[in-house]
Design brief:
This protein is an alpha/beta fold. The chain is built from 11 helices and 12 strands. Helix 1 crosses helix 3, helix 1 packs across helix 4 and helix 6 packs across helix 11.
Amino acid sequence: MDTRKLKYFLAVVDHAGFNRAAEHLLIAQPSLSQTIAGLEKELGVPLFHRIGRRAVLSEAGKELVGPARLVMRDLDAAQSAVQALRGVRSGRLDIITMPSPGIEPLTSMIAGFTRQHPSVRLNVSAAFTPEEVIESVRTGSTEIGLAGASTPIRVPGVQVLELERQPLILIVNPQADTFSPGEAIQREDLGGHRLIASQRGSLMRWLVDDALAHGVDTEIVVEVAHRTSILPLVLAGVGHAVMPSSWAPLAHRSGLRTLLIEPVSHLDVAILSRKEDLTPAARAFLKVAELHVEAGPENAPPPVRSIG
């Protein structure tokens, strides 16, 4: 088995079929099919089920995806290490992040990293749960993961660096701002208000559901999976939104008021990586993350404040 065959196999997986994979690889589709058939013959098992024009992974194919990604990642690491010795600072770094850590601290860390390593291309993909981030890092789909949870993240076999704690805030709908002056509210103050909520499973949704369970008369008017819609919905007067403090700078730049919700709940944000065999780019990014931690609170998002 050679790495070319694994590269072709992963291309079919990532592009959901032979035709698009062949276009991506800039080879003829029959040549790709022949290579995959040769790989299946070597392994003695089918890797795909051909259903019409679709290629669906077999059980054996599913088992091969993770190891194949690790092999390709290790090859990239070897090439990057040799290039580094020659003074070449290029390459690619794959990152996966949940939405709120993807605003901060990821933005600040990427800004610092790209200043030091302008020739490295970053590819950032999305996840919505810590489990998705952990699986992506474990399988080698990505080298770096950013996740947030209600408690500190602990994962056997995965390196975890705690970055910061983000308190939950209320981004205030300016058309329904009947809150008292100040910088904080109590959870019961949400009574009588309409809220834009994240889907179940997030810390922000838990706070809203917990308030409802304790008799706070609030109403979920919109449930949003794509959190990029939340600020526009608040600006449009649809409702208030409970979010981590990483969203405060964007809210303030949009002219919105934010309030700390007491008692305070925190999103614990951490960066995840494999414990070994990282590319030079990944190791360099982790150094930037360590500097972020060393910088302390002054490197975190600006404090919650009132606008207007």
